[in-house]
Amino acid sequence: MTVPIEQGFVLVALLWAIGLVGLLSRKNTFFMLMSMEIMLNAGALAFILAGSLWQQADGQVIYILILSIAAAEVGLGLALLIRLRQHYGDLDIDKLDEMKG
Amino acid sequence: MNMQDLLFLVPLLPLVSSIILLLLAGRLSPMLVAVFGVGSMALAAILTLLIGIEFIRMGGDPFQQVLFNWLPIAGASLNFGLHLDQLSLVMMGVITGVGWMIHWYAAAYMFNDKDVQRFFVYMNLFVFAMLMLVLGDSLVLLYLGWEGVGLCSFLLIGFWQHKADNVVAAKKAFIVTRVGDTAMMIGLLILFSEFGSLHITTIVDSTLEVSQSNLWLACLLLVGGAVGKSAQLPLQTWLPDAMAGPTPVSALIHAATMVTAGVYLIARMHPLFLQVEGILTLVAWIGALTLVLAGIAALAQTDIKRILAYSTMSQIGYMFLGLGALAFDGAIFHLMTHAFFKALLFLTAGSIILKMHHQQDIFKMGGLFKSLPLTSTFLLIGLLALVAFPGSSGFFSKEAILAATYKAHTAGPTLWWIGVLGAFLTSLYSFRLLFIVCFGPANHDLKEPDYKPSSQLVVPLLPLVTLAVIGGFISLDFSLVFGPAHHPNIPLWIEWMPVAASLVGFILAWVLYFPRKAMQANDGLISHFCRDGLGFDWLYEQIFTKPLQLFARINKSDVIDHFYHFVGWFNFSLNEILVVSQNGKLRWYLFGTLAGCALMLGGLLWWR
Do A24 and B590 lie within an 8 Å CB cutoff? Predict the structure, then answer.
């Protein structure tokens, strides 16, 4: 059975919205990073869907690219989180507000 | 070796001495300071004498000495060169000769002043600048000296700077002469644009066709400069106040040399003045008016130095009258004799002031012939030369000017009568000074007759006394500068009229001022008006100072600045508003970014 393309895009929108809400509502930086990953994957899924709709391989190419960037980003993000944790002993984003005008 | 090749040493000696004294400030004893300050002048004077002898022996041909390339500009390269001719030789002789005597006297006069070294730094620097003024071969070099003497004049008037009055007088002298200097600067620039050069000989001998109106304007501006420096109408107000300086300064700068720079300038540039209509008549009228007004003002003064200052203005008025009447040689002749007798008068006044413990009011003196016989005799000799007593030096020079005035087509009998009136006034104020100071009852506490004044204060006066008496017999030859001298054929009564006027002045002074009882200064309204220099100070205050002060008061908070303050205020306010958004909350930023995206996206969809 084939999934209608509209349902696919609804899933993309849902995933993106879930990620966004998580990003905005979470105080823990670790969960913010995870929410960001969800948003990123929503975007990647949109590329796959578009590729299958137009029968083009470009969508999958971009998916591979996004996946590798996401891996690198998570690596960096986790390293940052560890340093933050060591330095401040906390990951509450509302307490990390030293950089202000 | 040729003596003339040593010409550059004459200005160099005072300069070197000035620099040495400046660098060794506070390390030399007063004796050594005097040795440097006076010694350099003595050497310069002797050198001038030797050069002068050689110069006359060689026939008086102009001599050029280019020292180095000063301002290498493409097309109009300017050399640092000296130019010696009959005119500059006389000026150089007066500056170094009279200057030497005044320096010598000043060394004794200022010996106990704690700043004697600074004094001689300025004095020697002044002599250097003055020599550059008369020896410079280009108008730029002349202007260098012109500003140099102005600076030294400023520094020396305000020499005792701990007294506020002296500082005010120095500033006044500087600012008022600056008006003239600026005019002269503009004049020089016009000359440069017309002739393409500022080399004096080039300009004077130029055969270029130049625009008459520009030339007229340039000459007028040069007269403006001369008027400022020489304290003539309408820029004369600074000279009486300049008497705040030490008395030798008044003798050197404000009587013998600097104030005559204007006369030198016009004499030096006279071929230009001859090319334009009317300008020399203007010069003659300026001189004539100044000599009468200054003579009237001198009559009302009570300060001995201010009397002499007004007298100097009046005598320079005679020189201007001579220049205007084409008697350039007469004017320079009078410049020379005036330097002799006015320096003598100022220095004797200095001796009297020292003895009176810095009392300068003539009504507080009196009877000095008994208590200071030698100084009073010198004063009498100086005053006789000033009133042109027949046979004295002033007689010959003033006669030369007045005789030329009567016949000259640029002057004429009216100006001659004004000159005669001036002779009458000169005699009146001179004998008023003499009678009040030297005769009558003594009004001071100096009871013991002083027959043995300090020799250092007397010896320098002896050459000046001699020259004040016989200086008129020095025959000056200006034939290569001003053309062959011509003696106008005038009736005998015209020659003797000034003498008669002086005699009338003497008799009137005898009647009015010979002290039969204790004298008092006249305190009437007219006396006050004359004492304050005939209201010129008041007039300039109303015309220039008051409006400027009013404007300054209005603009105290700087009207234009308000605009810039607004720009600053606007930016600071904006900054304060935006700083609120920079709160460091990451989620707040995120929300901002998203809201922005949503807005843009929404807008994009909406407007399609």
Answer: yes
Residues of B in contact with A94 (CB under 8 A): 585, 587
Spell out the residues 6+ positions from residue B81 whose beta carbon is closer than 8 angstroms to its own. B64, B65, B66, B67, B136, B137, B138, B141
Beta-bridged to residue A28, according to DSSP, are A92
Q: Which residues in chain A have their CB less than 8 angstroms from residue B584's CB?
A: 96-100
B207-242 pLDDT, tens per residue?
777 788 888 888 999 999 999 898 888 888 888 888
Q: Using an 8 Å Cβ cutoff, are B514 and B277 in contact?
A: no
With 0-12 CB in 10 A as exposed, 13-18 as middle and 19+ as buried, what is A79? exposed
Query: pTM value?
Result: 0.76
A14 assigned to some structural domain:
no
* CA B516 from centroid of its chain's CA atoms: 38
Contact B400, B334 (CB under 8 A): yes
User: What Cα–Cα distance (Å) separates residue B508 from each residue in B181, B390, B432, B501, B513?
Assistant: 40, 19, 9, 10, 8
The CATH number covering residue A64 comes to 1.10.287.3510
Q: Residue A69: inside a domain, yes or no?
A: yes
- Neighbouring C-alpha atoms within 13 Å toward the C-beta of B443: 19
- Report yes or no on A61 lying in a domain: yes
A96 contacts on B by Cβ (under 8 Å) = 584, 586
**Number of C-beta neighbours around residue B175 at 10 A:** 11
Contact B586 A96 (CB under 8 A): yes
Count of CA atoms in the C-beta half-sphere (13 A) of B437: 33
- A43 within domain boundaries: yes
- 3-state SS, A58-74, equals HHHHHHHHHHHHHHHHH
**Closest residue of B to A22, CA-based?**
B587
Closest Cα to residue B370, out of B283, B450, B261? B450
For the stretch B522-543, pLDDT in tens is 667 777 777 777 778 888 888 8
Closest CA to B330 of B408, B410, B404: B404
Question: Is residue B116 within 8 Å of B55, Cβ to Cβ?
Answer: no
The phi, psi pair for B233, rounded to 5°, reads -55, 140
DSSP code at position A92: B
Q: Quote the DSSP letter at residue B457.
A: G
Taking the C-alpha atoms of residue B70 and residue B77, their distance in angstroms, rounded to an integer, is 8
As for the ipTM of the complex, it is 0.78
Structural domains in chain A (count): 1
- B83 strand-pairing partners: B64
Is residue B301 within 8 Å of residue B532, measured between CB atoms?
no
